[in-house]
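Ligand: geranylgeranyl diphosphate. Inputs:
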Amino acid sequence: NLVQFPVLKGFEFNTYMSEKAKLVNEALESAIPLQEPLKIHEAMRYSLLAGGKRVRPILCLASCELVGGMEVCAMAMASAVEMVHTMSLIHDDLPCMDNDDLRRGKPTNHKVFGEETAVLAGDALLSLAFEHLATRTIGVGPGRVVQAISELGSAVGSQGLVAGQIVDLCSEGQHVDLNKLEYIHVHKTAKLLEAAVVGGALLGGGNSGEVERVRKYARYIGLLFQVVDDILDVTKSSEELGKTAGKDLVSDKATYPKLMGLERAKVFAGELLEKAVEELAYFDAGKAAPLYHLAHYIAYRQN
Ligand code: GRG
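Predicted complex:
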């Protein structure tokens, strides 16, 4: 364990997560009705409604409520972020990228619908995300909606997810040092978490000081998410193999445990968690409880 998981009295984290995930799933279900052309909408719905932890949309809703906003103001943003995330998973799984057969416990989109449709389903989810955020946001002035659109756009493009993916692809077979590994993770993972959290605070009416504090929180938990992913890769595969060395210690892929050792990676994760939580000290403790627990959930998750 990194540190003892502190429990805030009166806050039922599991209930919070399942209630929010239910609301997000309902919003996503109604955002993409099964309509003509059937094939593309089936493919979009297949991946979007396939489960997933819904961490990004829940972070968005929690951040909106942290600054005193109503959940409904951030629901379109929460859905848009999950659409972008799902798009990135569909494209990441394609044969020209990671070539994966399974995602969220089901065959990948291209395995079921074919490569052409999977590319188009990703494209359609990406454009729908922005349309949805622009047209379905409720109770927020246009200036803030435009700021949220801009946050999401920069998280996805050539300074965001795409930057992380291209640097990752170009690093294959090369030595990756800690700086480059951090660049890849910040862009592939942390940028979208940042857009979710900052978008939620913007749409919830947060002032610029509040928005910048939650941005820092999001940057720490974004990197934490990936460091924990790398740690889980090692610990899970060593459990599976019944050995002390996991697959990441023997594969080519650079990971935090591989570059700094498992114990130092755990210490680093603990430091990131601590820094994230420090940013929440400025807010009312009751309102900050969901983001506080979400940071711990990311640090201690098992999948
Ligand atoms: C085409 C504009 C465009 C961008 C795509 C393919 C790509 C560029 C980027 C890859 C991004 C990627 C797949 C990053 C990994 C992110 C990550 C940590 C995924 C796992 O997230 P979880 O654990 O998954 O939240 P669930 O299934 O729970 O949602």
